[in-house]
Write a structure and sequence with these properties.
elongated, heme, lipid biosynthesis, metal-binding, alpha+beta, two-stranded antiparallel ribbon, 19 strands, 39% helix, Haem_peroxidase_animal, catalase activity
């Protein structure tokens, strides 16, 4: 009979289960450490190494049967091996305590191929599958009372008979008296492939002539180690590696590891000898080698496909063991939720669910609105994080273990975003797929319905500038500065894979500089990633990293970064960014370039260089690379802080948002004991400030999302016309259109007017309101890479083709009620008429249009629906980032760097480089709200006359 595997619920369902089990196993490790009062996280099991050897040898027998000659298994072939013998407990308990014992062997075939074999000194597992195994581990971790309740829980989950069977199995295995681990037999307990046809279990049994051992000690906590050391003084330790072949599903099951493959059903066949000799090194080196072995992460999936593990429990081992090892090495983290939070948080969310039906969250008293926002965020984390990067299912063998992580990648940000999460090095890196907050809707039949050109012309295009009077233009420049760090959908060159949009009758469009007018608009298509499950492509990779790493300043790769540097500093010419042959300023990202971006990039390049000087003074023995990378860390964190506690509260000008986002960074106000008590009760994680917590991806690998990109379509913020003033006298310097200060013209204006006058002029002027009929005229025929685009049309086309749901579905996906009447979306009768006329069906309203049309809460610069994405992603970008959580510490940033970030913000940064602006900047408000204008003498008198 041929063997086969079966997947519980299917391959994908089983993978998701394994991810949950991995989280559970990390919690077991946390619980074990707490109970044992250990300093560090240990292995979930087999915590105490009894013996380790790095120079063992595995030799296959000369008469290896023909059908067992597979891969590296060849007659007479020898390989070096690493051996670890251990007690099975997760506590480092004495050898004389009742326990199972384990054996782990790593066979070194070559630098490109290793095989890990793991076995235990009892022939079967207590658990039938991975779910039982992890449940039993959770139930029996901790102290006596915890174990009692755990066992009761097992009985409810699996039934009394299954629970008793598991307890009997473990008790029988643990209570055996062990004289010597050299005399023990170790069984794999799970099956594995042996070539294309065979399925086997393996065992290591002691060599027949193994010397006798004395009775086990009842007092020596290390007697097993001592016995092996004495044994090695007089000879080698040898085990025989034997295979048991699959017979049939009943006698030798693949999926049920609680059933023994008996020797009568499948007699063991000796295939190799494992020899351990006395170490040739001195005591110091032997101890050091044992420490290295103890740091290894053994995993049966460190092998080749010809020897891959089989069965549910074995399939789970890859994800679970990797997570456990990563947690032990501080590459991955988990933060158990206190019982009070689980209980009180659930009650609070249920209460707010009722309250929100009658009272909007922003109309509640301050503390209630803060707790309500926390409840929103919890629900969104549970239901609105959708990973889209390809995942491995079923697990695949890897010929070598994951490589060691270089020290530089542990301490400093990489340029491409790799190794932010050390347990998943590619997470959030350049090229990673944009995730989703809402299940995507891919509807090609609606891509051009209604015509996006008509929608843009009738509902988006600006007739009269509508200002946002609570902000200044720096707020508009800032958000584009940030978006260029976060997101960059790679595009095909125009003419390769264009999106073709039909034009209204009689309209012509020229899509390329020097091109001919056509009846269609051609838009450079995004580079797609193939869809899953046979669906058409709706996934796209990010050409920037997803992390908050200042890539717009420093560049997305090492080559670009190197080109921007002079020693540890960013190259500047007379305090300004250098320009390329096209007249564009040279920086990390200069697409869609205009004077606002030039000001931001210049300001932060100067800040980087000033930090290099300060770090050099503080740490004179540092080399250029250390200074550069530390300054880069400080600048990136300062940018994240400014966005969190200054820009966002400026555009969402309510007290609840100010307190909430400040708490994201700093924790709740120290004098607000009531808020602190409320958060302690329902969300302890939120009561300290994210930089003081551990990374948490909330069950989904971190990425920015297409929905996040959609709500950041804030192009109406840009005015079409600008006035520039002298910051000292208030005298007008010039009036310019947006087209005058964009592209290569930005550098000329920056050098002519200077950074101080530019910042002052932007600080005293208003951006546009994020609403309908306010899309900048300058962006309605904008040249980018020789492509002429109407960006308002592009925003609609991109959103539709990336599978972002239409507005009503978008609302529903964020747990807001669907709108049923057109008048719910706008109080303007003319806008209601246009919406009805253009869309016909209320469910076809574009998300971009709906977000602009929706009346925002008082003080908000954009809609409450868009804000739901902010609630989720604003904290996620901090919470997932290692360098803004666990590694936001003096050892990485330097003590000077941590102090610098704590004591600085946008205002102090501006004043450091432009001290003349001190009297104009707001005293007790963000630098993104309107500044005080300098009045000319005559203008001042004229205003006073008018006032009188």
């Amino acid at each position: 009979m041929e063997w086969s595997e079966s997947y519980q619920g299917g391959v994908e369902a089983e993978r998701l289960m394994f991810e949950r089990l991995a989280q559970d196993m990390m919690r077991v490790q946390y619980k074990t450490r707490s109970y044992a009062k250990a300093a560090d996280i240990q292995r979930a099991f087999h915590s105490k190494a009894v013996f380790a050897a790095i120079d063992a040898e595995l030799t296959f027998v000369d008469d290896l049967p023909e059908d067992l000659r597979v891969g590296f298994a060849a007659p007479g072939k020898s390989y070096s091996a690493i051996l670890r013998l251990s007690n099975a407990s997760g506590y480092g308990q004495p050898d004389y305590m009742p326990d199972l014992r384990g054996l782990a062997v790593r066979i070194n075939v070559s630098d490109q191929e290793q095989h890990d074999l793991l076995a235990t000194n009892f022939p079967v597992s207590h658990a039938r599958d991975a779910r039982q195994f992890v449940a039993f581990a959770k139930a029996t971790a901790g102290g006596g009372l915890s174990r009692l309740f755990g066992v009761i829980g097992l009985a409810f989950t699996f039934g009394p008979s299954e629970t008793l069977r598991m307890i009997r199995n473990v008790t029988t295995g643990r209570n055996r008296k062990i004289r010597s681990l050299a005399l023990e037999t170790f069984w794999s307990r799970g099956a594995m492939c042996w070539g294309d046809r065979l399925a086997v279990r393996y065992l290591f049994r002691p060599a027949p002539n193994a010397p006798y051992a004395p009775d086990p000690s009842k007092t020596d906590p290390g007697y097993l180690s001592a016995e092996l050391a004495r044994r090695l003084e007089v000879g080698d330790i040898r085990y025989e590696l034997c295979l048991q072949l699959f017979v049939d599903r009943k006698q030798t099951p693949i999926e049920d590891t609680s059933v023994e493959w008996t020797e009568s059903a499948s007699p063991p066949i000796k295939v190799a000898d494992l020899k351990v000799s006395k170490p040739k090194t001195g005591d110091a080196e032997t101890i050091a080698n044992a420490r290295l072995v103890d740091e290894l992460a053994f995993n049966p999936w460190n092998t080749t496909d010809a020897f891959r593990p089989l069965g549910n429990l074995n399939r789970a081992r890859k994800a679970v063991y990797d997570a456990s090892a990563a947690y032990r090495h501080s590459f991955r983290w988990t933060t158990p939720v206190p019982l009070r939070n689980r209980v009180a948080g659930s009650i609070a969310r249920s209460a707010f669910l009722v309250i929100n039906r009658f009272i909007a969250w922003h109309r509640l008293p301050l503390r209630l609105s803060l707790l309500n926002l926390d409840a929103f965020r919890y629900v969104l984390r549970e239901k609105n994080l959708i990973g889209t990067d390809p995942v491995e299912a079923p697990p695949v063998a890897r010929p070598t273990p994951p490589p060691a992580i270089a020290e530089g990648e542990r301490q400093m940000r990489t340029y491409d975003g790799t190794f932010n999460d050390l347990s998943a090095p590619k997470m959030g890196a350049v090229g990673s797929t944009f995730g989703r907050n809402i299940t995507p809707v891919f509807a090609p039949e609606l891509f051009d319905t209604p015509n996006p050109v008509v929608v843009a012309q009738q509902l988006l295009h600006r007739d009269t500038f509508i200002p946002a009077r609570s902000l200044n233009i720096l707020a508009a420049a800032w958000i584009q500065f940030q978006v260029h760090d976060w997101v960059n959908h790679a595009r095909h060159p125009l003419g390769q894979k264009d999106v073709v949009v039909g034009l209204p009758a009689g309209m012509k469009w020229t899509s390329e500089v020097g091109g001919k007018p056509e009846d269609v608009m051609r838009i450079a298509g995004n580079m797609e990633i193939s869809g899953y499950d046979g669906k058409q492509p709706i996934y796209f990779g990010n050409a920037a990293s997803h992390w908050w790493d200042g890539s717009e300043v420093y560049g997305p790769d090492s080559k670009k970064a190197k080109d921007l540097r002079e020693g540890p500093k960013i190259r500047l010419v007379d305090g300004h960014l250098p320009v390329d042959v096209h007249g564009f300023e040279v920086t990390g990202f200069n697409e869609s370039w205009w004077l606002g971006l030039s000001a931001m990039h210049t300001l932060f390049a100067r800040e980087h260089n000033l930090l290099c000087d300060e770090l050099r003074r503080q740490y004179g023995n540092w080399d250029d690379e250390r200074i550069y990378q530390t300054a880069r860390l400080i600048v990136s964190a300062l940018i994240a802080k400014i966005h969190t506690v200054e820009w966002t509260p400026a555009i969402l000008a309510t007290k609840a948002i100010e307190v909430g986002l400040s708490s994201n960074w700093n924790g709740p106000p120290t004098n607000d004991w009531l808020t602190k008590a409320g958060l302690w009760l329902i969300d302890a994680h939120a009561s300290t400030g994210i930089p003081k917590t551990m990374p948490d991806h909330h069950g989904t690998p971190y990425s920015l999302t297409e929905d996040f990109v959609t709500v950041y379509r804030m192009h109406p913020l840009l005015p079409d016309d600008y006035c520039f003033y002298n910051h000292k006298t208030g005298a007008k310097i010039a009036e310019k259109s947006f087209m005058d200060i964009q592209g290569p013209g930005a550098d000329e204006i920056m050098r002519q007017y200077g950074l101080r006058n530019t910042l002052y002029s932007f600080g005293t002027a208003h951006p546009g309101a994020i609403t309908l009929h306010n899309f900048p005229r300058a962006l309605q025929a904008f040249t980018r890479d020789k492509e002429i685009i109407d960006l308002s049309v592009v925003d609609l086309v991109r959103t539709r083709r990336r599978g972002v749901p239409r507005y009503n579905d978008f609302r529903a996906g964020l747990h807001r009620p669907r709108i049923k009447h057109w008048e719910e979306l706008s109080t303007n009768p003319e806008d209601v008429r246009l919406l009805k006329e253009i869309y016909g069906d209320i469910d076809r309203i574009d998300t971009v249009v709906g977000l602009f049309a929706e009346p925002p809460p008082e003080g908000f610069g954009f809609s409450d629906t868009a804000f739901r994405i902010f609630i989720l992603m604003a904290s996620r970008r901090l919470q997932s980032d290692r360098f803004l959580t666990v590694d936001f510490r003096p050892e990485v940033y330097s003590p000077f760097g941590i102090d610098w970030i704590a004591n600085n913000g946008m205002t102090s940064l501006i004043l450091r480089h432009c001290p003349d602006l001190a009297s104009m900047l707001p005293r007790n408000a963000s630098a993104f709200v309107p500044w005080r204008p300098v009045l000319l003498g005559g203008e001042k008198q004229d205003l006073e006359k008018r006032a009188s």
